[in-house]
Amino acid sequence: MEEDVNKKDVTGIPILDKIFFQANLNRYGISALLLIAVGCMGGAAVGTGGLENTFQLAVLAVTTMFSLSMMLAIAPMKWVILSSVVAIICDVIFIAINLLS
Asked: What distance lies between CA 16 and its chain's CA centroid?
C-alpha cells in the first residue's frame, strides 16, 4: 500500500509529476502545444541562419522531424516529450549562435 503512494509522487513537485509521469492523461493537449512549439522554433532557427550552414540545417531537420514523427506515430509520451525538449534546446542554441555571430 505504501509503495503505491510513493509511485504517485515521484519528484515531489506536483506539476512536474503531472506533466511527465501522468502525460498520457493529457496526451492531446501536450501534443498540440509541443507541435506548435517545435514547429515554430524550428522555423525560426532555420530562418535566422540555418539555411546558410549545412550542419545546422541537418541537425535542425533531424531533431524537428524526429519529434514530429514521434507525435504522429503516437509514441509513448515519455519519448514525445524527450524528443521535443531536445529539438527545442537545439533550436534555441542555433538561434542564439546565429543571432550573436
From this structure: 15
- What is the Cα–Cα distance from 7 to 42, expressed in whole angstroms? 35
Nearest to 88 by CA among 67, 57, 58: 67
Q: Is pLDDT above 90 for 93?
A: yes
Q: Using CA atoms, how far apart are residues 39 and 84, in angstroms rounded to an integer?
A: 10
- Cα(89)–Cα(64) distance, rounded to whole angstroms? 11
Residue type present at position 15: I
Cα–chain center distance at 70 = 10
**Residue 101 scores a pLDDT above 70:** yes
C-alpha to C-alpha distance for 34 and 80, rounded to whole angstroms? 9
Grid cell of 36 as nine digits: 506548435
> Alpha-carbon distance 80 to 73, whole Å?
10
37-85 pLDDT, tens digit each: 999 999 999 989 878 888 989 999 999 999 989 888 888 888 888 999 9
